[in-house]
Amino acid sequence: MPPDHTWSGHAFGALPVQMVHDSVGCLANLQIRYSRQLFREFSMFLCILRFTWPPVPLQNGSGAANRPLFLSFVRHLGGRVMGRRDLRGLRIVLTGASQGIGKALAEAAARRGGRVLAAARSDALLTELAQKVRAAGGTIETVHADITLREDREAMAGAALRHFGGVDVLVNNAGIGATGHFAEVSPQRLRAIMEVNFFALAETTRQFLPLLRLGQTPAIVNISSIAGKRGIPARSEYSASKFAVQGFSEALRAELSKDGIDVLVVAPSLTQTNFSQNMLEQKAALQLDHLRGMTAEAVAEATLRALEGGRNEVCLSMGGKMIVLVNRLFPRLADLIARRKVYSLFRDEIEAGGPQLPVRTTAKV
Hints:
It is built from 12 helices and 11 strands. It has helices at 16-27, 32-52, 69-75, 100-111, 123-135, 150-164, 187-212, 236-255, 296-309, 318-329, 331-345, 347-351, and strands at residues 55-57, 66-68, 91-95, 115-120, 139-144, 169-172, 219-223, 262-267, 271-272, 294-295, 313-315. It has a 7-stranded parallel beta sheet, sandwiched between helices. A two-stranded antiparallel ribbon has the order 1-2. A two-stranded parallel ribbon has the order 9-10. The longest helix has 26 residues, at 187-212. It is globular and about 65 Å long.
């Protein structure tokens, strides 16, 4: 039976020092069959932090500013193979544009001179967005669309042709989520999440490919999640949908290289939006504090910088980058931390013998 341990770091945003502290607590009581390999992984982790974390002077002539080598390393978890682009005048189609990251992206892209077609299901919120962007001197058009419906996807493409004569950038941002352990939720919930987060994203991309092939410096931007890099307990369906987006994007990036279409994947962690309030269900034992995450505006700015700068993948927030790094280099350590967190939340149930099977009665003849 695993020992008692309280994991005090934030689920997405723990700093390396906190992660080391929690890892030490885990490693102190390892089962013997895992101890040697986990100890090697943990030792490597400590060596990386020891020799790369202290700040060093920048060598780019920028002055006295310092940047840790470690930050420079994790910053480039995604490579740079796309071409640079100027957003001024580009025709940008954006799904899920009425709230949160989508709304912030629409406003930021319009400020950069992009011509934005904002798509969402809420006409009232789209109207409010359009008024705000136009008042600031930006160019924006709106279209009512549920991306899970073929006719609405066709309407989006038609609106892009009608208003702007084509498309240069497609931003797949619309998404939904839910929390709760997989065994305790319905099959319908899984299908609903996959329908919006993956199938609709893929079919929206299919709808716009003919237009993107004719576009100027064309690109597809898929807003994914850190949960698409490392599965998060009590968010198994959401994680699965984002892993699907990650794999789809990587394959599509290679396939579309012959057409000159770039594919950028953006993986935010916690974000200060209404996403948690808009979830289908919230059944997780641990509720994450989204107010501790990045603002939607910060995510939007980072996304557009990555698009302008030619990045093909970007992980946002230091905590998110640490999760990706530890999961990539020390997967057993990441598994151990996740298991112990679940154990701490369900300690009483586990020590009581777990959930009991229902009693079956047999009728006597």
